[in-house]
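step 4 of 6: structure.
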Amino acid sequence: MQLARVVGNVVATIKNSTLTGRKLMVIQVLNGDLQPVGKPLVAIDSVGAGTGELVFWCRGKEASFPFEGSEVPTDCTIIGIVDSPQHVKNIGVLQP
Amino acid sequence: MILARVLGNVVASQKNKRYDAARIMLVQPVNPDGSPRGVQMLALDSVDSGEGDLVIVVQEGWSASTAATGEPGAAIDSAIIGVVDYVEVFQ
């Protein structure tokens, strides 16, 4: 799992039938200091996240588990909303 | 599995229900010599680790779900499954 910021959403009319009613969001992955890393991804939302919110997401096959009962084809799902940036506790990298 | 250093944790009230009793830890993947590598990530704690601990993180869903919640099939891709006492590398 990694932290991310929701930066937008995607609208697709023609899509896999199991994606009907799902929210497709654009997320920017963040590091522990909440600085952007890498390129934006498209994620399916499972918790009601909105644009601008700080979230965390799950990758891989496990990303489809929140949608039990339907085989949602996803490898990137938003699974939690961080209460606030202050709720990310980070003591910083310790030098060996 | 990878080695990682625990940096802290994350609090989220609104989350997948399988995360209800879990501690969501912020970890920095590290090399065997302790130097950081890659991007910080989140892992569920299953061994009562704390800030500053060097830990073992499993990055596979079945193992992570089972270790962190006791059952497979949760939307969990990483879990802390051990606290490292020391690392020996022979080269």
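step 5 of 6: annotate
 - DSSP finds one helix and six strands in chain B.
 - The first strand of chain B starts at residue 2 and ends at 10.
step 6 of 6: archive
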